[in-house]
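> forwarded from #structure-qc
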């Protein structure tokens, strides 16, 4: 809060923009006082600042503002309970305070849309973890910055700076730090945790929470920045997935002429649709590939909502934009035909969920494939979902560093069912993982191989009655 107060005063005075606007926005007026109170304290206790700013009630804004005398720029507040929506604002700088409490992206959207005409705008979010996992702080921002900060995830955004002071987790999502340790205190409280008073305060909080379990929830969230009831762990450790990527010393294999098992994940017509190829190799290795499709007319909007560079992935050849506002499945079938011709793959089994695409049965038969129905259920997918992950963890999968597939792997989470069965859970995912869903559909058959060819066996003569 102190840092953002200083930043707010700097932003309205140091850039020379006349009548620029800065705001601290929160769900409640009381919450805005953390940053605002620090800013007014600085003004009141600094003779230098009092010479350059005023702090008084503004008739037009109907509240007290800090105004830079020379430029006319001001620092003000927005809050839901004060009915300050911010409509019509043109912010140069905005702080979203305790964003975990914001139920919508209203102020976030207000900031980003209002900053379009500013030459050097800055939107800043400060927050602890929280309890509402459906709010945009966790569902959108935390998920996004987790990908940015993960060196094995292809998501990049040099215009988004993020620092998250939280405890570490293992592959299953379990906290591995001892909250009684100095490491845990300093990881999550790098400023307060380094002071004697802060150290004693945190130690007392932890001791009390260990004695009174009902207090542990608040301590984990507010002191150690753990999102309580955080979603289940992701499907796969991205570091292990990255280790399976092709390198100069271990290039992606030549898959020409190999047996291949295609699988599709058919989206709603407005979403991403993917086809994957699982190619069994010698010694129980598998080479994997994918290609995805997205409607051309929704491309720009999907780039904004999904926060990924679909346009760049299309240019690099990992995806195709199909004309119109809906995915044209004929483009997918044509792509499948072309890639089989390119690599001289023999046509065999084709894996898909018949319940979601009965129309596809005739189409794939016309192309010469043997249709294999793969129900999207624990029974249909659990074994393949577990086996594919095990193959990756054992280094038995080879991929071509496809950023779309890596992004999908990072998005996928699992749902656990009876008897330790698992499957990918689309109902809880906040981002798309269609490419990996298609790949697991293909793996249901690739991991066991095609059934015996009875005709070939009979014609071989290697049998008797």
């Amino acid at each position: 809060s102190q840092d953002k107060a200083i930043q707010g005063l700097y932003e309205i005075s140091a850039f020379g923009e006349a009548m620029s606007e800065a705001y601290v926005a929160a769900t409640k007026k009381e919450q805005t006082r953390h940053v605002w109170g620090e800013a007014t304290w600085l003004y009141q206790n600094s003779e230098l600042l009092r010479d350059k700013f005023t702090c008084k009630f503004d008739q037009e804004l109907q509240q007290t503002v800090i105004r830079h005398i020379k430029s006319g720029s001001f620092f003000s507040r927005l809050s839901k309970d004060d009915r300050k929506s911010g409509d019509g604002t043109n912010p140069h700088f905005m702080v979203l305070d305790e964003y975990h409490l914001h139920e919508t992206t209203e102020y976030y959207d207000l900031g980003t849309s209002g900053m379009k005409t500013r030459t050097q705008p800055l939107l800043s979010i400060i927050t602890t973890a929280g309890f509402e996992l459906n709010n945009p702080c966790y569902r959108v921002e935390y998920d996004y910055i987790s990908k940015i900060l993960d060196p094995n995830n292809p998501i990049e955004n040099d215009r988004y700076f993020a620092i998250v002071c939280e405890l570490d987790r293992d592959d299953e999502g379990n906290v591995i730090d001892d909250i009684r340790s100095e490491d845990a205190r300093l990881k999550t409280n790098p400023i307060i945790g380094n002071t004697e008073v802060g150290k004693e305060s945190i130690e007392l909080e932890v001791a009390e929470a260990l004695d009174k379990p009902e207090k542990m929830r608040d301590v984990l969230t507010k002191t150690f920045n753990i999102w309580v009831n955080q979603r289940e762990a992701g499907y796969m450790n991205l570091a292990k997935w990255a280790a399976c990527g092709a390198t100069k010393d271990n290039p992606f294999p030549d898959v020409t002429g190999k047996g291949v098992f295609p699988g599709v994940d058919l989206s709603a017509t407005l979403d991403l649709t993917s086809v994957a190829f699982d190619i069994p190799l010698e010694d129980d290795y598998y080479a994997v590939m994918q290609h995805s499709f997205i409607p051309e007319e929704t491309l720009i909007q999907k780039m904004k909502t999904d926060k990924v560079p679909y346009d760049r992935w299309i240019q690099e050849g990992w995806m195709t934009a199909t004309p119109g506002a809906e995915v044209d499945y004929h483009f997918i079938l044509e792509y499948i035909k072309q890639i089989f011709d390119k690599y001289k793959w023999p046509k065999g089994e084709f894996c898909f969920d018949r319940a979601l695409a009965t129309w596809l049965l005739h189409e794939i038969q016309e192309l010469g494939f043997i249709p294999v129905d793969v129900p999207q259920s624990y029974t249909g997918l659990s074994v393949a979902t577990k086996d594919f992950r095990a193959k990756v963890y054992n280094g038995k999968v080879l991929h071509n560093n496809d950023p779309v597939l890596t992004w999908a792997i990072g998005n996928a989470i699992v749902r656990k069912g009876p008897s330790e069965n698992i499957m990918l859970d689309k109902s809880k995912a906040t981002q798309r993982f269609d490419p990996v869903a298609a790949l697991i559909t293909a793996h249901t058959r690739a991991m066991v191989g095609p059934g015996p060819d009875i005709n070939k066996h009979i014609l071989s003569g290697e049998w008797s009655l």
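QC bot note: Confidence is low (pLDDT under 50) at residues 451-459. The chain has two domains: 1-136, 238-447.
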